[in-house]
């Protein structure tokens, strides 16, 4: 039986185990999207993961969704990431950059301009607009034209190229949790009638072009895609989920990507169907979207038995930088910090000890 502690060949990378650190918003970059020494320490502390996927990184100014999120669209941002990737590699780790374009999940006070999306449809909810404004109703996004949508898909390729320049081993495109790629997939956010909307073929087009752009830039074997089929984060609505993601999987399968990374946001039958249809590495986060229920070791082992190749964990890594060793030895897990501290308290951010020092 496959074990979490078995090694795994992921393209050109030999992973020492099958436990992946999932991407999590950390919001600790500078105002101009530069990473800091504390961020380098944070990721280096967690380098025993088979693979680290970074927090979401903005591919351009339009894609900036969160306050104090890092970017990969200026030379200064690329240079700031190099000490981070160097620190991870020095500690024996491997790290992919998650390229995250917020699309309509944003605010002019954060991005400096109106957010964009597939259609001029605001999400039903509030977004964080900075400390001065706090939470504000989500604005109506600017609907990208056909030409602009094609250009925005190509941005993922430009960011992937910069990620490799910054020392990352590869990239993961964020196609989950209600951000731009999933907005194009969504029947709620995408009311287009051009080639990027309408039918399932139209709704998957942006995702396919974004992945192709990244694959063309750095090689398909260094590109992953994260999805959350049927997920409802940020007011996402998707119809015909098995057919939609079946079509997406079929379109991407010939590319030879590094992996497909899914959250458990739909029924097991649909996800197992995707596993059977996907010819490459299948990575599962055994968690139901962003919510109160954390993924467990038992849930990860169940998905390995169902055919997953790799298992990712997010919040468990916050207070357990040595999560792999704690799982391996049965050492107690430190409890996940309170939600309100996730994006605050820079000292605690890097002060969680390993089990041997706890």
TrEMBL record:
It comes from the Bacteria. Pfam families: Oxidored_FMN. Transmembrane segments: none annotated. One of its GO terms (molecular function) is FMN binding. Residues 4-332 form the NADH:flavin oxidoreductase/NADH oxidase N-terminal domain. This is Oxidoreductase. It comes from Streptomyces xiamenensis.
């Amino acid at each position: 039986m496959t074990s979490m502690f078995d090694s795994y060949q992921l393209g050109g990378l030999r992973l020492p185990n099958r436990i992946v650190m999932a991407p999590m918003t950390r919001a600790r970059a500078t105002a101009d999207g530069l990473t800091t020494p504390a961020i380098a320490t944070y990721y280096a502390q967690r380098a025993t993961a088979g693979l680290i996927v970074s927090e979401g990184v903005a591919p351009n100014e339009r894609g900036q969704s969160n306050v104090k999120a890092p970017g990969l669209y200026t030379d200064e941002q690329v240079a700031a990431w190099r000490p981070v990737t160097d620190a991870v590699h020095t500690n024996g780790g491997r790290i992919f950059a998650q390229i995250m374009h917020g699309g309509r999940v944003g605010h002019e006070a954060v991005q400096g301009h109106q957010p964009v999306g597939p259609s001029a449809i605001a999400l039903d909810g509030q977004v964080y607009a900075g400390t001065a404004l706090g939470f504000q109703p989500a604005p109506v996004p600017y609907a990208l034209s056909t030409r602009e949508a094609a250009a925005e898909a190509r941005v993922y390729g430009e960011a992937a190229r910069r990620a490799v320049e910054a020392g990352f081993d590869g990239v993961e495109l964020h196609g989950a949790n209600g951000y731009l790629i999933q907005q194009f997939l969504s029947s709620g956010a995408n009311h287009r009638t051009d080639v990027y909307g309408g039918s399932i073929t139209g709704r998957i087009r942006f995702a396919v072009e974004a992945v192709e752009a990244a694959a063309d830039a750095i090689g398909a074997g260094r590109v992953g895609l994260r999805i959350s089929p049927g997920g409802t984060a940020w007011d996402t609505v998707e119809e015909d989920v098995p057919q939609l993601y079946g079509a997406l999987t079929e379109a991407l399968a010939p590319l030879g990507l590094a992996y497909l990374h899914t959250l458990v946001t739909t029924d097991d039958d649909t996800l197992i169907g995707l596993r059977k249809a996907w010819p490459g590495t299948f990575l599962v986060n055994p968690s139901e979207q962003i919510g109160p229920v954390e993924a467990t070791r038992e849930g990860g082992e169940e998905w390995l038995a169902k055919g997953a190749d790799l298992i990712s964990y997010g919040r468990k890594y916050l207070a357990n930088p040595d999560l792999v060793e704690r799982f391996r030895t049965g050492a107690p897990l430190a409890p996940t910090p309170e939600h309100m501290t996730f994006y605050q308290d820079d000292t605690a951010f890097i002060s969680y000890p390993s089990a041997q020092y706890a």
